[in-house]
């Protein structure tokens, strides 16, 4: 993995401050999850380029129980998956009434972006 790439920087931060990342994830709550992907070019070749890549799900973990195991899992996959990509997002269950109310859904989406901004601050070293 290229340590100067954004994903390489993420892996380096995970090694340097894993407990901080665990606290951030635990603060997000059980409606959030972490997904790890392997990226390829649209034609299946490598290396992928941004905008011309397909993301193939390798693993997904809901944030119901955050601990050492989650960070170890992420670090292992970041090292072993070719061209990894990470997604941290919020899950809204099918049938949730908020899906029928555009204003409430928009407000919840904005709140989710604020919650996940803690991950960006972590990556920036704040």
Estimated structural class:
alpha+beta
**Strand order of the biggest β-sheet:** 2-1-3
Describe the sheet with the most strands.
3 strands, antiparallel
How many structural domains does the protein architecture include?
1
C-alpha geometry: globular
Determine the N-to-C terminus distance: 24 Å
Give the helix proportion (percent range). Answer: 40-55%
Low-pLDDT windows of residues: none
Explain what you see.
This protein has 126 residues and is α+β, with helices and mostly antiparallel strands. It has one domain. It is built from four helices and three strands, in the order ααββαβα. It has helices at residues 6-16, 18-28, 68-80, 102-123, and strands at residues 32-41, 53-62, 84-90. The protein has a three-stranded antiparallel sheet, with helices on one face. Helix 1 (6-16) runs antiparallel to helix 3 and helix 2 packs antiparallel against helix 4 (102-123). The radius of gyration is 16 Å and the shape is globular. 9% of the residues are buried.
Detail the topology: elements first, then pairings.
Layout: H1 6-16, H2 18-28, E1 32-41, E2 53-62, H3 68-80, E3 84-90, H4 102-123
Antiparallel strand pairs: 1-2, 1-3
Helix pairs in contact: 1-3, 2-4
């Amino acid at each position: 993995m290229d340590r100067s790439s954004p994903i390489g920087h993420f892996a380096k931060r995970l090694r340097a401050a894993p407990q901080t990342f665990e606290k951030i994830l635990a603060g997000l709550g059980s409606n959030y999850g972490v997904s790890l992907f392997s990226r390829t070019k649209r034609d299946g070749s490598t290396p992928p380029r941004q905008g011309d890549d397909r993301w193939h799900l390798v693993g997904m973990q809901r944030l119901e129980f955050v601990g050492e195991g989650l960070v170890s899992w992420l670090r292992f996959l970041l090292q072993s998956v070719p061209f990894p990509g990470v997604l941290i997002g919020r899950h809204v269950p099918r049938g949730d009434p908020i899906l029928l109310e555009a204003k409430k859904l928009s407000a919840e989406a904005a709140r989710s972006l604020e919650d996940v901004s803690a991950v960006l601050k972590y990556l920036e070293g704040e």
